[in-house]
Amino acid sequence: MSIFHQLRVKEVRRETVDAVSVAFDVPNELEKEFRFSPGQYITIQKDLQDSLLRRAYSICSSPDSGELRVAIKEVDKGRFSHFANQVLKPGDLLNVAGPEGRFVLETNEKHQKDYLAIAAGSGITPVISMIKAVLQNESKSRFALIYGSKSSDKTIFKKELDSLVASSEGRLKVQYVYSKIISDKALFGRIDGKMVKGLLKSDFSGYNFDTYFLCGPEEMIDDTKKVLLKNGVKEEAIKLELFSATSYKKEVTKSLSGNVEITVVLDDEETTFDMRMDELILDAAIAKGLDAPYSCQGGVCSSCLAKVVEGTALMERNTILDADEIEEGLILTCQAHPTTSTIKIDYDDV
Question: What does the DSSP 8-state code read for residue 59?
């Protein structure tokens, strides 16, 4: 499970009018705890207005920088994102859990690869960490980025990206896409499969991509992934992470009724209680008073991962686990309903 540590805010830096990056002071004794791979996120916990909030934010610094920094974009009705953008200041203390996440790029100095990332909005956050790591650690590799935002001034890390392009000696290429303004330095519109297909045949025709990283809203990811698969890209070469999900109806709950007996293994302790089938396992565990791990509660991260060791469960949505992992019994408990009269899940065995 996630273990939270109090970290002091080192810097709050304005990146765009509606986004900041936040750097933390990590004490020497916690350096090992906060080592990360490019693409991972940390979970921040904060009491705000008598509510305990947990939010996952991707790390935008590189592992070699010696810095732990995340980017936080202010969103409508986002209580913590508003606090971070308007109130948070250097010297403040926040409870932070160590890095997690499966959307990662592990570098190797022997690699000679081409990488493509397709990001929109704050989806650039984990990607820029990957870009920095590749440029620093893989001298023979190249990185290409298709990056969508509303306009130049709303493009998070634009100055930093342009600086990286200038110093990369041709190893980094960025294609900006703006949806609100027309610019001769960017494509106009929103990133979709048709646009990506065109770029692969034109601007990026000289690349032989090994891995594709998709990060942004669900609609963009679904559309671009379909095009990549149709063009012969193997599914295992595509890694994705949602930064926002479209709304959907909980159709799966219509066929679920009655109570079940659930046993939860957490921190080497077993707790057994009754819950309704139409409840989500994570919600039921939290209501029972268990300190079950979670962050986004939207099926976007993997903090709430657990393994079904007895019985079965059905997830409302899943964009993280592959077929083999599901076959092994892994579930996102924030999305999972029990479907047998008894079920046992293990948070420790993941």
Answer: B
32-83, pLDDT tens digit by residue? 999 999 999 999 999 998 888 999 999 999 999 999 999 999 988 889 999 9
Q: Are 242 and 217 in contact (CB under 8 A)?
A: yes
Number of alpha carbons in the 13 Å side-chain half-sphere of residue 279: 16
Return d(Cα 337, Cα 262) in angstroms, integer: 11
How far is the C-alpha of 344 from the C-alpha of 279, rounded, in Å? Answer: 15
What angle do the packed helices 193-201 and 218-230 form, to 10 degrees? 50
End-to-end CA, the chain: 10
Which H/E stretch holds residue 211? strand 209-217
- How far, in Å, CA of 336 to CA of 227, rounded? 29
Structure tokens at 84: 């971070």
- Residue type for 170, please? G
Could you say which DSSP state residue 180 is in? S
Radius of gyration for the alpha carbons in the chain, expressed in angstroms and rounded: 21
Q: Give bridge partners of residue 271 from the DSSP assignment.
A: 264
Which positions ≥6 away from 222 have C-beta within 8 Å? Answer: none
Structure confidence by residue, pLDDT tens digits, 109-142: 999 999 999 999 999 999 999 999 999 999 999 9
Dihedral angle over CA of 280, 2, 56, 96, nearest 10: 140
Q: How far apart are CA 197 and CA 230, in angstroms?
A: 10
Contacting residues for 198 by C-beta, under 8 A, at least 6 apart:
none
CA 86 to chain centre: 23
Contact 291, 269 (CB under 8 A): no
